[in-house]
Write a structure and sequence with these properties.
It holds the Pfam family Peripla_BP_3. The protein is α/β, with parallel strands linked by helices. The relative contact order is 0.12.
């Protein structure tokens, strides 16, 4: 069996610096970015001692290039919620001995166009264009002039760029299945959207797709929710208000909230009404926001796989770069599964 290939991560661990620092030094860019001479010497010495060799260029990728890719977002880079998306992309890039350049536009189309131009001028191998939440976006001018991937975004106009999205329909099925398997058949209310598939917050692809998955499972099990409360935003105060409206008319047995912040508000309204989760009312939600682990009992939620989304986008980007010609027509959409995180917010219903 051949000897295992030494990676950038191996050199970084042995040197005691980050993988990014090693990559910059070995790419000859250490001094440009003010990495000290002493660190440069240690990195180069360690790489030589370990026998590190750079990978040969992949077939189909352009020769003699920068070994960098761009990551352009609206607000992802400064968001605590989606920081794992960046880490997933970074790790996937580092595994291929590539660096990642970040840019953030704040959602300004002109800034997006300028950042795309700047990244192309610096000869990045490709660009991941990411949105904080799944939405329809205008594809920046120049993005399709080289390998690129849309992450958490669908193109507003015709585009052949590949797309990476969370599997929201599958998430809706998973959340509904939790209640069905626990024996809930009556007294179920939706908080956040509905009753129709068009009754969702503006531009909320996630809401529509989650409702599709929920209705698939409920329909198959012969379950009909009692009510569905549309919310203009998915914040705790919206969940609190919607749950209060439900309690004024009904005695709910289960709440299926369209995100964890809504569920947090629902918890407060239930507590004020003297109702206990899950003894009186079961609650299921989506996103795996930190709120889900803070509340008591811990919330059962279907997680947004931020890390996996970032890694998948880089994987798809490299696959797109290796294609000699880009297929035209509808974009290929890659769906990343959303895992269920079981808490203690759902109680099984005894058969009567």
């Amino acid at each position: 069996m051949g000897r295992r290939r030494v990676t950038l991560a191996d050199v970084a661990k042995a040197t005691g610096v980050s993988t990014t620092t090693v990559s910059l030094v070995l790419a000859g860019r250490g001094r440009d970015l003010r990495i000290s001479e002493e660190v440069e010497r240690r990195v180069r010495s360690t790489a030589q001692e370990l026998g590190y060799r750079r990978k040969t260029l992949s077939v189909g990728l352009r020769a003699g290039r920068s070994r960098t890719i761009g990551f352009l977002s609206d607000t992802v880079a400064s968001s605590l919620l989606a920081g794992a998306m960046i880490r997933g992309a970074l790790e996937a890039a580092h595994q291929r001995d590539f660096m990642l350049f970040f840019g953030e536009s704040g959602g300004d189309p002109e800034v997006e166009r300028t950042l795309v131009e700047a990244m192309r001028d610096r000869q990045v191998e490709g660009i991941v264009f990411a949105a904080m939440y799944t939405r329809v976006v205008g594809v920046p001018e120049g993005l399709d002039r080289g390998p690129a991937v849309l992450l958490n975004a669908l193109p507003a106009a015709c585009s052949s760029l590949p797309v990476v999205l969370p599997d929201e329909v599958g998430a809706g099925r998973a959340a509904a299945q939790v209640l069905v398997e626990a024996g809930h058949r009556e007294g179920i209310h939706l908080v956040g959207a509905g009753p129709g598939l068009d009754d969702v917050p503006p531009n909320s692809i996630a809401a529509t797709e989650r409702l599709v998955g929920i209705r698939q499972v409920f329909g198959g099990a012969g379950v009909e929710e009692v009510s569905a409360r549309w919310c203009p935003k998915w914040m705790p105060e919206d969940g609190y208000r919607a749950t209060g409206e439900i309690l004024r008319r009904y005695r709910p047995r289960a709440l299926l909230c369209l995100n964890d912040r809504l569920a947090f508000g629902a918890y407060q309204a239930l507590a004020e009404a003297g109702l206990s989760v899950p003894d009186d009312v079961s609650v299921v939600s989506f996103d795996d926001h930190p709120i889900a682990s803070w509340v008591r009992p811990r919330l059962t939620t279907v997680a947004l796989p931020h890390h996996e989304l970032g890694a998948k986008a880089v994987e798809v980007l490299f696959a797109a770069a290796e294609q000699r010609s880009r297929p035209r027509g509808a974009p290929v959409v890659h769906r990343v599964p959303m895992p269920l995180r079981r808490g203690e917010s759902v109680k099984a219903v005894r058969a009567s």
